[in-house]
Amino acid sequence: MSHRHGPRRGPRADMVPEIAAAVGFVSSLLRTRGCVSEQQLQVFSGALREALAEHYKHHWFPEKPFKGSGYRCIRINHKMDPIISKAASQIGLSLPQLYQLLPSELTLWVDPYEVSYRIGEDGSICVLYEASKPPSSYGMLTCKNQMMLGRTSPSKNYIMTVSS
């Protein structure tokens, strides 16, 4: 693998590690069923990587990591995400085969500095990739984190009203 070293623009404008994490995850799901050869997986990974890079090109904002998150999100909800089905068609996988190989409900969020997924509509969210964010964005809680926090600890006001 040759890495082209171009001029670095700002903090980080590329999406290479995030896309690699997302592609690696989807490929590993296909690999676990054992019906897809390693060579097919390589072709699939390459096709998916290119498709995502193209899809995200004008929708990647490292300075506002959550902007465009819904657009970038890869989703299978009894309907196959078109980006996945297109990459799969390059290795001859049909839609019915994909439905057998992949979870029927999968959400994959590919955001700058963080890639996470959830299997099932109320499964827990697992982080696949997390990069150190530039300090400025620490103050922002993603809606996912708020959801997670919300489950474990009620907010201060809630405790106040209950005890008064």
From TrEMBL:
Domain of life: Eukaryota
Coiled coil: none
Annotated GO biological process: negative regulation of cell population proliferation
Annotated TM spans: none
GO cellular component: cytoplasm; nucleus
Annotated SMART domains: btg1
Anti-proliferative protein domain segment(s): 56-76, 102-121
A matching Pfam family: BTG
Family according to the record: Belongs to the BTG family.
Protein name according to UniProt: Protein BTG2
Lineage: Eukaryota, Metazoa, Chordata, Craniata, Vertebrata
